[in-house]
Design a protein that fits this description.
By secondary structure, the chain is an alpha+beta fold. Among the domains are: 252 residues, Immunoglobulin-like (Sandwich), CATH 2.60.40.1760; 226 residues, Immunoglobulin-like, CATH 2.60.40. It has a 9-stranded parallel sheet with strand order 26-25-24-23-19-18-17-28-27. Strands 1-2-3-4-16-13-12-10 form an 8-stranded antiparallel sheet. The longest helix has 19 residues. The protein starts with 55 loop residues before the first strand and ends with a strand.
């Protein structure tokens, strides 16, 4: 780390430090007057009850072919619960598609100057449109309403009358800073989604999901980085098919969803009601969670971007790689241990004083970076650096502090403004006082593209890691006003590894597996705490508290709105660790961060995506962003943020991943082995195994902790080699899953309940998950374990499961928790009967793997059938010139392929393995492209229900999938 202030080593900001976290809690500006200290509104007994407001009455109904609109007029005296009542509203109901119904409620009179206060622009967040031919009569959904006693509505299934959403018995509240809508729910309802959250996958009926993008680590049950106001509900009906549906609320304001027994209350700090109800029904009319997820992605926010093939390899990074020599050593360490390594990443260590687009000439000089990255590329490996979302504001009184990116941005006038001065907003982040781009301006995109293009000439990266995109600021308000002459300033807290901020935390169970080291860490931690208690600390400003303020007619209090969302920051303050809500954009409406805070991450990801299209014309951009919003998956992927090296954090990463599969960002992964705190060989082995079945696979930790590269411990190294052999052999399967996600909105990782919807016992299961429809993963999630328990859904109803490693069929009872052997280097993986998996010989890199021979694994179901698919293209083109889709089918003893497309993959087909065969092989014939093949030299290895056929390379010398194949087998 480069020093950023002369007193850096002498001053301990311990009051505000969070030991071992990458993004610590900031100090607070003394310039901001704190509001009265009150608890969050949901716990404030003195707060008004919005349901005592008068509601609205509907009138002047105008019908159209696809719905109707009406006027809503307040039905009594002003309530002023948490804002100023809006008297006149418009209601629009549109049957947009057969399976999607839209309900909009917004002010009847909106001037140009406050339009964005209520209406979320389709230029920022996709606004679904109707298909132009669906009517009330052809829709599978039905809208009903009444004025008795005030306007209320409900949404039902047209065919069965099943009520999906109902405000009956509740009033609608619409104020300039507070909206409320409540729906009754069935008893014991099962709701999932509302990402991003660190919570049980099954949300339950005692949970408050707050949405306000925040830089506060992985806070359990609190708001995190992303905003996806979408939930999917599953209902189990006695003796009938399970049903599912979805609700998406298109609103970017700070908001929360109060899940309570019997109802859900939806509250926002502004905007409009823009609700999309999804039937979850497929072509046959049956509804399911998977179809609901497809409809959300395809119809509402857009399907996720297709990823480059190499991005599915294993990635390594750390905050604390000090120089290029260290990076070379990391690559060598992996190679020497024979653990596949696809890409190396850099955290903020690469920069000169933490400033974007710079190089620390002492540790990461541009010439050295170019040489080193060239070495990576020659080895078919890749490089990804970080970009923070803030732009350092230079000290204009110091010529040596010139900083081109900010100066060019300031000249264009593209920075978010301080509303009191009209100057750029100056918050604080890693390099010091900084500004943030206003993505509402097209000039911002041009500027951003130019900066990334210029940086690429010095650092020829392969993708971009976008951090702090909430957007995060380490102070309260525009704290750099009049203080730029102090830049560069040290962040207002201790950094990891600063004196007094060593991290001595270890995972649960460490005191058992390594009692001696655990005792030493405990003693060192106590000694550090004692030292800090006797250290003279500089004064720190009193925490700014978000308290409930009284609505004022004609005024909106943006920094302290009357309604207090349950924000995780101290005092629930919206000002803390973020650009202030009253910071102003440069559009004609002077839109504020109050409206746009939650979409900053979406906007910078979009801007980076388009910048990378200029860097790599025609190539799929690879970005990984921290703050995301509904629709972000079209341009970025996501990692789980600042987690901890604990078993609980690893466990909850599964539910976090499943909610992102629902949300349209399947390229998701957690910081493997944990970011903050020290890992150990037990946790890291198990986490490397688990993350191998997440789409994005990266190890990342903070510099205050011990090294955790996979080769550090022999046990972790062996676990990693074994599991990566499995992952890399499955890369084509995973790539094909992404093709289906990109084209059809299919889920990549899947909850067991999604694939087996009739089994009520699976509704809360996420200690296991499926990769696609075919692979069941049962990880060890507790310390010092040698076995793991898991269920095998569908057994007893015709589903068969096979052990991945032995292909032995599982013998279990329906809903039985089976104890499985799980030594430290082993993760249990099972193949679902009815699947055909295209595999490839795993190599050290994805490039080497793509050149390895193919094989097919055919796992037969109870009907002796199976199917699967394989998608192939060049692995990187935004619009591939050639592609190929191979469909596999096994039925009646015949394995066949059906091929569409012209892309050529040269490796041959070497092996075919069948699991669950009915007897001994008595006959085998093979034709390719209609030509019979002499199979006398083919090796056949029968086993217990397993048939292995090898030596097929000679029949496909031009490539495994250049001709359609028919393999006929007969058994006694």
């Amino acid at each position: 780390m480069a020093a950023t202030g002369a007193l850096f080593l002498a001053i301990l900001y311990a009051v505000n430090a969070q030991t071992g976290t990458e993004r610590p809690v900031p100090t607070l500006s003394p310039q901001i007057n704190a509001a009265p200290s009150l608890t969050p509104t949901i716990y404030d007994a003195q707060a008004p009850d919005p349901q005592k407001c008068p509601g609205y009455t509907a009138s002047n109904v105008h019908n159209s072919t696809d719905g109707f609109n009406a006027e809503l007029t307040i039905a009594g005296s002003h309530c002023q619960a948490f804002g100023n009542d809006i008297d006149d509203l418009l209601l629009e109901v549109q049957y947009q598609t057969q399976d999607r119904l839209n309900v909009k409620i917004y002010p009847r009179y909106i001037g140009d100057n406050n339009r964005t206060q209520y209406l979320l622009s389709s230029d920022i967040v996709t606004e679904p449109e109707g298909d132009g031919h669906t009517t009330e009569q052809t829709s599978r959904l039905k809208f009903e309403w009444t004025n008795d006693p005030t306007f209320q509505f409900r949404v039902l299934r047209a065919e069965t009358g099943e009520e999906l959403f109902s405000t009956y018995g509740h009033v609608i509240v619409y104020e300039d800073q507070f909206l409320e809508l409540a729906t009754d729910m069935v008893d014991g309802y099962n709701v999932y989604g509302l990402a991003e959250n660190i919570h049980d996958f099954h949300l339950g009926n005692n949970h408050t999901q707050t949405f306000y993008a925040v830089d506060a680590g992985n806070t359990v049950d609190g708001n995190v980085y992303g905003t996806f106001p979408f939930y999917q509900e599953t209902r189990y009906h006695e003796g009938k098919e399970t049903t599912s549906h979805g609700v998406y609320a298109r609103n970017a304001h700070g908001q929360e969803w109060l899940l309570r027994d019997g109802n859900i209350t939806y509250r926002t700090l502004g905007g409009s009601f823009d609700l999309y109800f999804l039937s979850g029904q497929d072509e046959s009319g049956s509804s399911s969670a998977l179809e609901t997820i497809r409809q959300f992605q395809v119809d509402c926010v857009g399907t996720p971007a297709m990823q480059q093939f190499w991005t599915f390899g294993f990635h390594q990074t750390r905050w604390g790689y000090e120089n290029i020599s260290v990076m070379r050593d990391i690559a060598k360490g992996y190679k020497d241990a024979n653990i596949p390594l696809e890409a190396l990443w850099n955290d903020i260590d690469i920069y000169d004083l933490y400033k974007d687009f710079t190089s620390d000439n002492n540790t990461f000089p541009a010439a050295g970076m170019q040489q080193w990255i060239s070495e990576l590329h020659q080895a078919n490996q890749y490089y990804v650096p970080i970009i923070d979302s803030n732009i350092y504001a230079p000290n204009l009184e110091n010529e040596s502090d010139a900083y081109g990116p900010w100066e060019r941005g300031a000249e264009l006038g593209i920075f978010i403004r301080d509303p009191t001065t009209g100057d750029p907003y100056y918050g604080n982040n890693w390099p010091g006082f900084s500004s943030w781009a206003d993505w509402l301006l097209p000039e911002s995109q041009d500027w951003w593209t130019n900066e990334i293009l210029s940086w690429f000439k010095d650092v020829p990266f392969d993708g971009i890691w976008i951090d702090l995109s909430e957007a995060s600021s380490f102070c309260v308000g525009s704290c750099g006003n009049g203080r730029l002459n102090e830049n560069p300033v040290h962040p207002p807290f201790l950094l990891p590894n600063d004196p007094g901020n060593a991290d001595f935390r270890y995972p649960e169970g460490f005191n058992i597996s390594n009692a001696t080291e655990a005792a030493s860490a405990s003693a060192a931690s106590a000694s550090q705490a004692s030292m800090l208690s006797t250290t003279t600390l500089i004064p720190v400003a009193t925490t700014t508290t978000q308290g409930r303020t009284e609505p004022t007619p004609g005024v909106r209090n943006l920094n302290f709105p009357p309604y207090v969302i349950n924000h995780v920051q101290a005092g629930h303050s919206l000002l803390k660790s973020a650009i202030a809500p009253n910071a102003t954009h440069n559009d004609p409406s002077n839109t504020t961060e109050y409206e746009l805070h939650n979409v900053y991450g979406l906007q910078i990801s979009n801007a980076t995506y388009h910048a990378l299209l200029s860097v790599f014309p025609g190539r799929r951009p690879f970005t990984v962003g921290r703050s995301t919003f509904a629709g972000s998956g079209r341009t970025t992927s996501h990692w789980g943020g600042d987690n901890t090296s604990t078993w609980g954090s690893m466990f909850l990463s599964i539910s976090q991943a499943l909610t992102f599969m629902m949300s349209g960002i399947p390229m998701f992964g957690a910081d493997t082995c944990g970011f903050a705190g020290n890992t150990d060989y037990d946790l890291c082995s198990r986490w490397m195994e688990l993350s191998a079945f997440f789409p994005f696979y990266r190890n990342h930790n903070v510099k205050a902790t011990i090294s955790q590269e996979a080769y550090i411990w022999s046990s972790v190294a062996e676990a990693s080699r074994r599991v990566m052999a499995v992952r890399y052999s499955l890369l084509n399967y995973m790539y094909t899953l992404f093709y289906h996600a990109h084209t059809k909105g299919d889920a990549v990782m899947r909850a067991l309940a999604w694939e087996f919807p009739q089994d009520r016992s699976l509704k809360g299961t996420y200690t296991q998950f499926l990769l696609g429809p075919s692979l069941l993963v049962t990880p060890v999630l507790i310390p010092n374990a040698k076995t793991v328990r898991g269920v095998f859904p569908g057994i007893g109803e015709g589903t068969r499961w096979y052990d991945w490693y032995t292909l032995k069929e599982v013998q279990a009872k329906p809903q039985e928790n089976v104890t499985l052997e799980a030594p430290l280097e082993h993760i249990n993986v099972h193949v679902r009967g009815g699947s055909i998996l295209p595999l490839q010989q795993p190599g050290y890199t994805t490039t080497e793997t793509r050149n390895g021979s193919y094989s097919l694994l055919v796992a037969l179901d109870s009907h002796q059938t199976a199917s699967g698919s394989l998608y192939l293209d060049d692995g990187y083109s935004l619009v591939p010139e050639q592609s190929k889709l191979v469909q596999f089918k096994y039925a009646d003893g015949v394995l066949s392929t059906h091929i569409n497309g012209t892309y050529k993959s040269s490796p041959p087909l070497a092996n075919v393995t069948l699991a669950g065969v009915p007897g001994h092989l008595t006959g085998l014939s093979l034709t390719i492209s209609g030509q019979p093949c002499e199979v006398g030299e083919v090796a056949v290895d029968p086993g217990d229900g397993v048939l292995r056929i090898s030596g097929l390379e000679e029949f496909t010398p031009e490539g495994a999938w250049e001709g359609e194949m028919v393999m006929k087998l007969s058994f006694d």
